[in-house]
Amino acid sequence: MTAPGTGDAREVRAEDAFDVPKMATWLTGHAATADAGVDLGAVPEVRQFSGGVSNLTYQLRYPGGDLILRRPPKGTHHKGAHDMAREHRVQTALGRVLPYVPRTVALCEDPSVIGTPFYVMQRIEGPIPRKELPRGIRLDPDEVATLCRNVIDLLVELHGVDVAASGLADLGKGPGYVRRQVEGWSERYRRARTWNVGSFERVMHWLDANQPADRPHTLVHNDFRFDNVVLDPADPTRPIGLLDWELATVGDPLMDLAGTLGYWVQPGDGRLLQAFRRQPTHLPGMMTREQVVAHYAERTGIAVTNREWAWYEVFGLFRVAVIAQQVYQRYLTGQTTNRQFRSFGVAVVLLELRCRRLIARARRMDAARAAAPVGAPS
User: Fold this and answer.
1) Buried (b) or exposed (e) across 337-367, using 16+ Cβ within 10 A?
2) Domains and CATH numbers, the chain
3) Is the model's pTM score more than 0.85?
4) What pLDDT was estimated at residue 373?
5) How far apart are CA 11 and CA 106, in angstroms?
């Protein structure tokens, strides 16, 4: 294990640029230096982080330290998406009960400042795993295994937070979470579908017809991935930060885990899926998807059968496909020119095929269970 290198902030893309002096003037008048931890009197140098396909993240380099700015992309958005005020509120509340959450500094809901609402937070310094481990970090398989366990345990810790004590209980809408998720993501896909991808209708029908019963609700991150985790610079097997609270809510923790594993590409997944890998889950020492589920179940005490998990796994993959398709639609309609999105349509097609294979396997499980003698284990 070696020390990390620098981060991956780079020059701001032209389409994502904003009026930096105007932003700096606004921030000076609306945030206290004590909250920011830096001298706000200067105009910062701005860099853009390359990760993420939803809200945009920038590094504000002030004399004496950095801050982070989050804003939505330009263009039309689904109602309720890219809600800066909501994300700021969730992150502010969680920052009081989870040490991994960056403290917020200020929220601007006036789009005239930089063209969209935005908020600013303190920066947690440390490397972030993306498609590969950060530059300069070398981990052997035992260290990779430790990193993997620690990251999944971070999700377990989030799901163990007292919802009422967090002040975020009102994010929950009561029973029917699974149904609302299936209906909501299905609606989003139908609205974002383009001519060159599949309909997903068989998948959506199966998800609707086989919904599991609601489980006790917890806080859920809804975008829990390695590239939203900040590692300790002195020990990159240890997470010290958890980022991107845009989709956080109160709901079924297994759907949160399923969303995580929807991005989990591991050895043996095939060359095309490997091409869309966005985190280092291929490394020797990483748990397989099945091992992650077993580890999570052991740590939380939540019991789930193979047949039950099949539904969650399909939902997690479908949800990733919807997100990819929404971004791909933005690319095709010219709302973004970021060329990394031009192949997302292929990913959507691959994800539909994978969902349909898993559904076929689940149906075989159902048939085997139906043929088993009464009282046989499922």
Assistant:
1) eeeebeebbbbbebbbebbbebbeebeeeee
2) 9-122 (3.30.200.20), 141-368 (3.90.1200.10)
3) yes
4) 60
5) 24
* Cβ neighbours for 355, distance < 8 A, ≥ 6 positions apart: 200, 203, 314, 317, 318, 321
Q: Which of 110, 122, 123, 121 is nearest to 22 (CA)?
A: 110
DSSP 131-144: SSPPTT----HHHH
Phi, psi of 242 (to 5 degrees): -130, 125
Q: What is the spatial distance between Cα 116 and Cα 122, in angstroms, rounded to a whole number?
A: 20
pLDDT digits (tens, 9 = 90+) for 105-142: 999 999 999 999 999 999 999 999 999 999 999 999 99
Exposure pattern of 243-261 as b/e (b: 16+ CB <10 Å)?
bbbbbbbbbbbbbbbbbbb
What letter would DSSP give residue 370? Answer: H
Mean per-residue pLDDT of the chain: 91
pLDDT 10s digits, 337-358: 888 899 999 999 999 999 999 9
Are the C-beta atoms of 150 and 239 separated by less than 8 Å?
yes
Ramachandran class of 95: left when φ > 0, alpha when ψ lies in -120 to 50, beta otherwise: alpha
Strands (E), 25-147: 45-49, 56-62, 65-71, 104-108, 118-122
